[in-house]
Predict the structure.
Amino acid sequence: MRNIWTRALWGGAAGIVAMDAILLLGRAGGWLTYNLLGSLASPFTTRGVAFSPSGMILGFVIHILVGALWALLFTAVIRAFRSRHNIIAGVINGLLIWLLWGILFPPLGLGSAPWNLGTSTTAFTLAASLAYGVILGWFTSEEFVGAETTGGP
């Protein structure tokens, strides 16, 4: 899997799975009041369905697709800067995603800014966004290629 575009797509998918897992744990523990997957499904179905298990599956599919597209955009940017060690770029990317989440979702009717929903929601959404960024950064970095060729993680 040496092609950076393939690694970006896999990194985007893996990052979204990690992001959604963190958000799911936060909701299951009662620390998170925000349902991202339901919010993502809501433009495509009724509110009742969007926040049901079927809507959550639709939201997850949408999230994977958006995460893959964002991964390709991230990869185009890091290639333009000729970056090879992208974990720090991934952290910056995760922070940017979290900020865009809070800036774009409210006007689109997809929910409130995460930092307006309490400290635990702020922490979980930020951690989830940073996890996505770090995983994507690692998948698109030379450290990943090195781990892949030496049999490491």
Notes: The radius of gyration is 16 Å. Helices lie at 4-28, 36-41, 47-50, 53-80, 87-108, 119-139, 142-150.
